[in-house]
Amino acid sequence: MHLPTIGNYLAVSGANLVLTAISPFQKLFDPPGVTHEFCNHQAITILHNDGFGLFAQFLTTYIIELNAGVYWADQGWRNVSHYFEPASGKGLWQFATAIDTFHSYYHQGLNSMHRKNYRKAVFLLGAAAHLMQDLCVPHHARAKVFSGHKEYESWVQQCYANYAVQSNGMYREDSTLATQILENAVVAADLFDWVNLDRGTVNYHNATTILLPLAQRSTAVLFLNFCVASGNFINHPIEPAISKDGIVRGGWRAAFTHGDNCF
Predict the structure, then answer these.
(1) Parallel, antiparallel, or unpaired: how do β-strands 248-249 and 241-242 relate?
(2) At 232, is the pLDDT very low, low, confident or very high (cuts 50, 70, 90)?
(3) Which among 56, 213, 229, 246 has the fewest CB atoms less than 10 Å away?
(4) Exposure pattern of 215-235 as b/e (b: 16+ CB <10 Å)?
C-alpha cells in the first residue's frame, strides 16, 4: 500500500486549513457558470446539427440537471481540482488534477446511467463537462489561480455569444476522451501569454477565437461519447448520421467501446 509522505500530508493539510479559513470569501473568487451553460447549449446544438438528434433530444430533456452539475462542480472548493498543467502533469498544489476529477465524474455518471438514474447521470455529466471546458482556459492549464484568471473569464462572459459555433464536433476515430481533454489543456497552456494579466486585454479576442470554439466542440464529443458508452438506453438503433451539410458522420462510433472502459 502506498503511504503519502509526511511532506505531502503537511502540504495537503495546510492547504485545507487555508481553504477552511477563507471559505466565507469563496463567492468573491468563483467565476459565474453562465459561460459553461453556453458551452453546454452549443454542444447540444452541435450534436443536433451533426446528425445526432436523438442524443441531443435526450440531453435537452435533462438540461436542468446538466447545468446544475456545472454549478455544483464549482461549489465547496471543488474548483481546486480544476487545474492541470500538461508540461508537469500536476494540478494546483497537492490537490487532484482536473483530468483525475474529470475521470471520476464521467465514470460515476456512466454508472448512474447503467442504473437508469438518468437525472443523476446527466448531473454528473455536467460536472465532467465543466472540467472539459475549464481546460480550455489557459490559467487552468497552467495551474494559475491569479495572473489575470478572473479578468479573462469575466471578459469572456460578456461576449461569449460572438464565438458560438453550430456544428462540426471534433469526432475522430483515433481519439479518446482522455486524449481530447489533454489536447484542450495543451492548446490552452500554449496561449497563456495571450491572456496573462501583464499583457492586458489586447490578445483576448485572438485567444478566445481558438479556445471557446474548442470548448464547445470538445464538449459535443464528451456528450456523444457519454451517450454511446451508456449502451442501449435509446430503443432504436443509431444509424450513421448525415448532417445538414451532407457529410456522413457516425462511422467513428466503432472507436468507442460500450461501458466503463470507453475512457
Answers:
(1) antiparallel
(2) low
(3) 246
(4) bbbbbbbbbbbbbbbbeeeee
Instruction: Please give the pLDDT value at position 226.
Output: 96
Burial class (CB in 10 A: 0-12, 13-18, 19+), 120: middle
Residue 5 in grid coordinates: 509522505
Asked if 94 contacts 11 with a C-beta cutoff of 8 angstroms, the reply is yes
Tell me what pLDDT residue 200 has.
80
Does the pLDDT of residue 242 top 90, yes or no? no
Phi/psi zone of residue 224: left (φ > 0), alpha (ψ -120 to 50 degrees), beta?
alpha
Query: Which grid cell sits at 27?
Result: 463567492
Residues 6+ apart with CB under 8 A from 40: 63, 66, 67, 70, 126, 129, 219
Instruction: Please determine, for residue 201, whether its predicted confidence score (pLDDT) is greater than 70.
Output: yes
Contacts of 112 (CB under 8 A, 6+ apart): 118, 120, 121, 124
- pLDDT tens digits, 130-182: 999 999 999 999 988 766 688 999 999 999 999 999 999 999 887 899 999 99
CB 134 within 8 A of CB 98: yes
Among 38, 33, 32, CA closest to 215: 38
Q: Map out the domains of the chain with their CATH numbers.
A: 32-262 (1.10.575.10)
